[in-house]
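Hi both,

Apologies for the delay on this - the queue was longer than expected. I finally got the S-adenosylmethionine-bound model through. Below you'll find the protein sequence and the ligand SMILES exactly as submitted, and right after that the structure tokens for the full complex including the ligand.
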Amino acid sequence: MRKKNAIRRVYELEVLPGVERFALDELRDMHGVRVPEGAVVDDGAIQFTFDGPARALRRLRSAVAAYVVERFDVPRPKALLGHEHLTRLMAFVGEAAQNDEFQSFRIGAAGRDSDVFARLTGEIERATGLRHDPEEGELLLRFVRAGDGWEVLARTSARPLSARTWRRCNMSGGLNATLANVMSRAAGLREADRVFNPMCGSGTLLIERAALGKAEMLVGADISDAALACARENVEASGARDVELGRMDVVNDPLPARAFDLVLADLPWGDAIGTHAANEELYPAFLKSMAHVTSTRGRMVVLTHEVKLFERLLEQERRWQVKSVQKVSHGGHWPRLYVLSK
Ligand SMILES: C[S@@+](CC[C@H](N)C(=O)[O-])C[C@H]1O[C@@H](n2cnc3c(N)ncnc32)[C@H](O)[C@@H]1O
């Protein structure tokens, strides 16, 4: 039930472009959230209202960051220096500063080095006591043009939500944790699933799947000892229990038949990890092994940037049916997220 006298505020969620519908589903499941028509205001930006405390939004696992939003009907930022707007802006920033007990702030805006922003910065320092730190400031304040006016967005956490506290070990080619969350949900969550994460790297997919609820089995394998050590460190920090990790070449070593119901895989894309030439052999061998290791109604979720190669193989082999394909943004690339079933 909605709390009496609760303040319903406007928030904006920053998500990786392409995962908006998954973030909307997660938002809709959250008590106190209202998602209006036209909530997706831009690629990767979703606006909604919420009457709970801003810190509750930290539970969202498909979001890169959450911001509280204040709209000003002004033609340009300079007008924010007028008495009425400035008073409201200072009250807004002062309130936002309490969301994570921020001590410092920084500005994110086109023209943040201009005289106007220098004056706004001085006003914020005076009115709120926050220290201006242009590079490391904890409270990020973004100034964004929106239609005929401007919006000020205050991030609700010092670190992005996608920077998980479990990540003690980082690996080149590591998956953004919000995308790992989305991949697990795209497959459908089933407690009876025996889940296999071949090429598990630093363990992102296993940890994010474990955070979503029980699974019959959660098994990760990688050919690299360094990757497995990294995954172990992260799994331990996450507190996820019952994750099994093992060293294995998942395309050449013998695998048990029909041992898993669901495969979650973030394959080498041939740039940061692996090469395109090696993928010509790795990908067909991978599809064959995964067909062998999964049950007769097996499902698989794959993220890859080798789109032409992967689609050609799916077409040729016909072992897997494509249930959905989603283009998503990740680290400056636009890989595809495939949901497949046998
Ligand atoms: C794109 S990375 C996975 C990143 C991972 N999702 C993460 O978040 O850290 C690909 C991983 O595949 C592993 N790999 C490549 N070929 C393999 C094979 N044949 N068998 C097992 N692992 C393999 C690499 O060692 C690397 O850790």
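Main takeaway for now: The first strand starts at residue 9 and ends at 14.

I'll put the files on the shared drive as well.

H.
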